[in-house]
Amino acid sequence: MTKKHYYNVVIVGGGISGTALLYTLAKYTNIKDIALFEKYDDFATLNSNAKGNSQTLHCGDIETNYTLDKAIKTNKTATMLENYGKLYGYEEKYMFKIPKMAIGVGEKEVQFIKDRYEAFKDAFPYMEYWDKAKLAEIEPALLEGRDENEDIAAMGTDKRYSAINFGEMSKSFVRNAQKENPNIDIHLNKEIQDIKKIGDKFELSVDGKHYYADYVVVDAGAHSLLLAHRMGHGLDFSCLPVGGSFYYSKVDSLKSKVYTIQNPKLPFAAIHGDPDIIHNNVIRFGPTAIVLPKLERYHHAHFLDFIETLAPSTEVLEVFYDLMRDSDIREYAIKNFLYEVPGVRKKLFVKEVQKIVPSMKEDDIEFAEGIGGLRPQVIDKKTKKLFLGEAKIETGEGIVFNMTPSPGATSCLGNAFTDAKLISKYLGVTFDIKMFERELVS
Length: 442
Description:
By secondary structure, the chain is α+β, with helices and mostly antiparallel strands. The chain contains 12 helices and 22 strands. It has a domain at 3-94 and 163-242 and 291-338 and 373-441: FAD/NAD(P)-binding domain (3-Layer(bba) Sandwich). Helix content is 33%, strand content 23%. Strands 1, 2, 8, 9, 10, 11, 21 and 22 form an 8-stranded mixed β-sheet that branches. An 8-stranded mixed β-sheet has the order 5-6-4-14-15-16-13-18. Strand 21 (391-394) and strand 22 form a beta hairpin. 49% of the residues are buried. The mean pLDDT is 94.
């Protein structure tokens, strides 16, 4: 094994999760030889790219499907990324203070917002309750064209960084990691095809060449589970890849991120409107949610890989059956399928948009071609449930597999912190937790 082919730690995947771990290991541990492998020619080309997600720093304050406990935990990791941005001066460069809110429309939803605000205001003291009159000042597009008898309210803030370019943050992690540790090797256009445990080392195969590592972390989206299955790990998990699309509107409407209330039965985000931070004067509405038989949204199908990660079984079929027998979920699935069908999709989707911006017309929106990502939603075969949020396969054998759908980008440094602790314990190296917490947590 030559020096160039042996590392203490190898990270597989150059999205926001993999690059955040690279930075964390480079700056806060004394590990010398680290490598990152990315299958494409740049970092963050898939879900971490600004085109592939909602560009939202999820703090738990406007995500109405979060419990208070989950919101508090998510806010802690969101603050880490916010503090990282401040540490390097990325304010208004890669992260932006756009007002954000969760709105309730109609008597029942307005009461929900009131109750949630009361329950959350101590944990999120910067949040404010905005009634109809206040919203008319802050975001008049929410009122224009709305029935004057229809009530509307929101809980929101303009005091937090709410929008993040996760793709640029990913690239900054790599730059800053290389400044901290010049021994880091970056391998672009290198797809890991196989991983084997040989003695106390791991052998990673790339185009007929072999690389070796003491410890491996796989941060490769849906491919994390594919590689885990091939090593015999995570066999109780299946992957259900869910694609999300967006619609654009160039009508000068929203100046804020506006989220609607989540149906607690539905595992995916409710429709929201966001000013696009990479396209001036463009508003995005979405995401939609549709199951796709592939592991990457805008690349070749990977159909056999999809089947391998889905790992069809009676337990998986039971999960599908339980989901589809619920009328709310069934209607949601049908609508989201139709939101992808040319000829009918705009006419149907504009009704979702009108809950946020009542004056919006069908001709005011267009399907955003090539925009959106694919989230690896995990099915737990043991519980026969769709596992919401992130999943980790920690083998205890020197290899970890991470699947990080939303809010995985927001939680990238929190996840990196967890993995850095596992790595430092396994390898017997030093992790300066106090410095990490002083710079990113406090």
